[in-house]
Amino acid sequence: MLAWGLAIVGVAALALRVGLPAGPAAGPWLVALQVFMPWLAGVVSGDIAWRRAPGWVLRGRGVRGRWPRPLGPAIEAAAALSLFLALLGWPVAAAGLSVVVAVLMSVRLSGVLARTMTHPGLLLPLSFLALIAAATLMLKLPAATPHDQPIGWVDALFTATSAVCVTGLVVRGTAEGFTIFGQAVILGAIQLGALGFMIFGSTLALVLGVRPSYQESLTLSAALDEYPAHRIMRFAWFIVGTTLAIEAIGALALAALWPDPLTPHTPHAPGGLAWQAVFHSVSAFCNAGFDITGDSLVPMRHGLAPYLVIAPLIVLGGLGFLVLEDVTQYLRRRLRPRPGRPAPRLRTHSKIVLATTACLLVGGFTAIFVAQSVAAGGPTPGTLADAAFLSVTARTAGFNAMPMDELSPGSRFATMVLMAIGGSPGSTAGGLKTATVAVLFLAVAATVRGRHDVEAFGRRLPDSLVRKAATVAASLLGVIVLATLTLDLTETIPFEPLLFEVVSAASTTGLSLGATTELSPFGRVVITITMFAGRLGALSLLGVLVQGVGGVGGVGGVGRIESDASARSHLPRDTVSLG
Fold it and tell me: Using an 8 Å Cβ cutoff, are 296 and 386 in contact?
């Protein structure tokens, strides 16, 4: 803990150098703290043996004499290079290396906590709270906002929570209300919040040659919806690699289709187009909904980028990594069949998610298209495209290509239903999750048909899964009802936009009818808590707080339940996740 604290001091010095106007005397001291504290953190943590001179590396106990642990060389090399670059007058590069050292120490702390905490289920909410606190402090720095638009503590907390919980609700425009530094803080919070710091930390540890302990694997398995612990590191690799690859491809595609200049905020700034492409690619895949255009995707309403790039990124991010991994393996085996190997097939969970997602996309498009056409007295040339994009983005993405005040009452209701359903288990999206809705629908269908068993694709779903799905739905409904009643008693906003706002926050969507900026400070705190509960899952959060265990929660969900066939064979193929 002391080592991690020293690393934080180093990053704080970096933040002060970037965010505060330092005087001539303050600069050298901040540089010294920025470089020395992370190195000292490595010494305190035992990664660097400071009593041994560098010459001892080549004799005696060899490399281990200087660096007893695998992170030692990386920490010391980063600190030394940071000092060298600072002396050469390259503070930006030196700052980046200082952040690297702090991240390395965070990886060390994550591993220690995973091995020593009595209730490792607390790691998930604590990691989110730590990210929110760090993002809040960074957004409060003067460099994060224009000098004539300082941000208050409540608004900084609201923005940080919205970014970490990949919601997208904002109390000030991200384009005009934050500088490039502030936008970078928001983007980092989105990326870490969407995938989880533990996943990034574990993957980075593997890159550096640090093998996780069995307890660490179990902790990460609990955080990833009870994914088999013996394959958890490979799955973490898949999550990070797939995310970076898809976001990179999306950024390149957006750069080709993005109008430049799009807005007056960064019309001809160096790298302006690249920054727009990267920011919106990450925001779309993470289903965050943050934009730096000033008006979401409305300026590109009749362009190709929202429909050919943003929409596919949203769908891929909302399917969930369990499904993406299963589909990848299925396609690989189909393209490269081997003699004697059984024919590839998708898991029951993947079939449910893909079928439900397709039904929601088609059903949502139909409902919105009909509602908009009836309200307008007939379909207009852009109604088809608007309905198609809103059907995709309403399920927790938060972008809008049409002004929200153009939505008819029927379209607003359909949007709220789609927001409440949300994305799929194990994804960056929120809401009830597609698998939960599918299980509830199948249970109702079985009851209507007079059947005792709930089945999906020839597999019987256990009663415990149905009960858990109903509990998840009831918990989300409870959060929405409680938050709506609280705000209705304390705010002067009309009921419909207020309810829309709460559903958007609880499902981590980010769409708004304009109520966000009209909320009082108390109302913004209520929405902040609602976003946090919606991201972690109300049932998971309650289970962690009451029981102090992580068995009830995954990444924003309630865990993985096996069907009877899987319980007998112990195979993960026939499991259904509600996480």
Answer: no
Could you tell me if 470 and 440 are in contact, meaning their C-beta atoms sit under 8 angstroms apart?
yes
């604590």: which residue's tokens?
126
Phi, psi of 576 (to 5 degrees): -125, 125
User: In the predicted model, is pLDDT for residue 164 greater than 70?
Assistant: yes
Q: What 3-state class would DSSP assign to 454?
A: strand
Average pLDDT over all residues of the chain: 77
| Cβ atoms of 504 and 510 closer than 8 Å | yes
Using an 8 Å Cβ cutoff, are 425 and 579 in contact?
Answer: yes
Other CB atoms within 10 A of residue 5 CB? 13
Q: Specify the DSSP class assigned to residue 306.
A: I
- Total Cβ atoms within 10 A of residue 547: 12
Q: What is the 3-state secondary structure (H, E, C) of 33-71?
A: HHHHHHHHHHHHCCCCCCCCCHHHHHCCCCHHHHCCCCH
Instruction: Please give the pLDDT value at position 109.
Output: 62
Q: Give the tokens for residue 46.
A: 């035992």
Residue 445 CA, chain-centre distance (Å), reads: 34
Where is 576: in which H helix or E strand?
Answer: strand 575-577
Pairing relation of β-strands 454-456 and 575-577?
Answer: unpaired
Distance from C-alpha of 463 to C-alpha of 468, rounded to nearest angstrom: 9
Q: Are 537 and 556 in contact (CB under 8 A)?
A: yes
Q: At a CB cut-off of 8 Å and minimum separation 6, what does 298 contact?
A: 400, 401, 402, 403
How far is it, in rounded angstroms, from Cα 256 to Cα 274?
A: 10
Q: What are the boundaries of each domain within the chain? A: 1-116
| CA 232 – CA 222 distance, rounded (Å) | 10
| Cα dihedral 559/563/565/568 (nearest 10) | 50
pLDDT of residue 219: 60
Short-list 504, 433, 10, 478, CA closest to 225: 433
Helices (H) and strands (E) in the chain, counts: 25, 4
CB contact set of 20 (below 8 Å; sequence gap of 6+): 141, 142, 143
Query: Quick one: CA dihedral 213, 217, 218, 220, positive or negative?
Result: positive
Give dist(CA 159, CA 169) in Å, integer.
8
Strands (DSSP E) found in 353-510: 454-456, 459-461
Q: How much is the average pLDDT of 111-129?
A: 67
Looking at per-residue pLDDT, the higher value among 182 and 341 belongs to 182
Q: pLDDT tier at 520 (50, 70, 90 boundaries)?
A: very high
Query: Residue 14: how many CA atoms within 13 Å on its side-chain side?
Result: 29
Q: Looking at residues 488-510, what average pLDDT do you find?
A: 94
What pLDDT sits at residue 82?
73
Tokens of residue 297, six digits: 């995707």
Which residue bears the tokens 């150098």?
A: 17
Length of the chain: 579
Q: Taking the model in full, what pTM does it have? A: 0.81
| pLDDT(10) > 70 | no
Q: Quick check: 144 and 185 in contact, CB under 8 A?
A: yes
Q: What is the Cα–Cα distance from 322 to 324, expressed in whole angstroms?
A: 6
As a whole number of angstroms, the distance between CA 452 and CA 447 comes to 7
Nearest residue to 388 via CA among 371, 403, 366 = 366
Q: What angle do CA 506, 510, 512 make, to 5 degrees?
A: 100
Q: What is the DSSP letter of 297?
A: B
